């Protein structure tokens, strides 16, 4: 499973039946994803900690993604990047991304590693 952070409103406005196209697909050529839930929290707090609003996590079955997925090094970690629109049948679930009272993202119970 790979994960993508998205503002809740953006996901709610996603046209039904059409592949998901994040703005980064146009600006950078790929959709950013993360490979593990703990790293997901770190990424969210780093890039979106000061961004108001509700966020969601797309839980994506990498094997079902029709566009090429490449794991690329960024710093000390590797991140999966989707090089094309995301087909919706690869999205296995959408999880609310909770924050604490200070606005920091927290690992949702649904993604707690066993």
Q: CATH homologous superfamily, by name? A: Protein of unknown function DUF952
Give the number of DSSP strands. 6
Rg, rounded, reads 13 Å
Number of helices: 3
- Helix and strand pattern: EHHEHEEEE
What is the overall shape?
globular
Q: How many structural domains does the protein architecture include?
A: 1
Distance between the termini: 14 Å
CATH topology: ADP-ribosylation fold
What about the largest sheet? 3 strands, antiparallel
Give the CATH level 1 class. Answer: Alpha Beta
Fraction of residues in H or I helices: 10-25%
pLDDT average, as an integer? 94
**Share in β-strands:** 25-35%
Q: Which descriptors apply to this entry?
A:
114 residues; alpha+beta; ADP-ribosylation fold; 3-stranded antiparallel β-sheet; 3 helices; 6 strands; 19% helix; 29% strand
What does this structure look like?
With 114 residues, the chain is of the alpha+beta class. The protein has one domain (2-93): ADP-ribosylation fold, CATH 3.20.170.20. The chain is 19% helix and 29% strand. The chain has 3 helices and 6 strands; from the N terminus they run βααβαββββ. It has helices spanning 8-12, 23-27, 37-48, and strands spanning 2-7, 31-32, 55-60, 69-74, 77-82, 91-97. The strands form 2 sheets. The chain has a 3-stranded antiparallel beta sheet with strand order 1-3-6. It is globular. The model has no long low-confidence stretch (mean pLDDT 94).
């Amino acid at each position: 499973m790979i994960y993508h952070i998205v503002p809740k409103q953006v996901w709610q406005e996603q046209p039904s039946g059409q592949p998901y196209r994040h703005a980064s697909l146009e600006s950078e050529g790929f959709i950013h994803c993360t490979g593990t839930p703990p790293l997901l929290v770190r990424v969210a707090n780093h890039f979106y900690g000061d961004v108001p609003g509700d966020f969601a996590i797309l839980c994506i079955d990498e094997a079902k993604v029709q566009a090429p997925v490449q794991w690329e090094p960024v710093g000390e970690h590797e991140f999966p990047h989707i090089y094309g629109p995301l087909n919706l049948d690869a999205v296995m679930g959408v999880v609310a991304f909770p924050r604490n009272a200070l606005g920091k993202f927290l690992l949702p119970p649904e993604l707690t590693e066993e």
